[in-house]
Specification:
two-stranded antiparallel ribbon, binds zinc ion
Length: 118
């Protein structure tokens, strides 16, 4: 008794990549360290508010949509290993435009081995 609270373990971002599957020219981040294809934007000074739908039978709060307001991008990093993404000059990337440019400019630099067609 008394073990209240959920651990909030709801990392269900998996559907996005599947949606992108088969679409045209989407450039994906690839972590230079671990090869993970997901990056995350880390923001600081964010005010987040979450709609509370009600309380369920067990006494837990049921959350609805969340809204975040304000905030400043601190960095971009690998979702898996936390490797901070730096641009060509070794500067920390701190805007979505910068990040997009960086990923776009990585074209051709990834170590994809060309398969020889028979
Ligand atoms: Zn990584």
């Amino acid at each position: 008794m008394g073990k209240g609270g959920s651990d909030g373990n709801e990392g269900d971002t998996g559907s996005l990549e599947e949606m992108m599957e088969g679409t045209m020219s989407i450039k994906k981040f690839k972590c230079p360290k671990c090869g993970c294809r997901r990056a995350e934007e880390v923001m600081v000074n964010v005010t987040e508010s979450i709609v509370i739908e009600g309380i369920d039978e067990d006494g837990y709060v049921i959350y609805g949509n969340s809204l975040s307001d304000g905030g400043v991008i601190d960095r971009y990093q690998c979702q898996k290993c936390g490797e901070v993404i730096l641009d060509e000059q070794g500067r920390q990337i701190a805007s979505s435009e910068h990040f997009a440019n960086h990923i776009s400019s990585m074209k051709g630099k990834t170590n994809i081995q060309k398969r020889v067609k028979k």
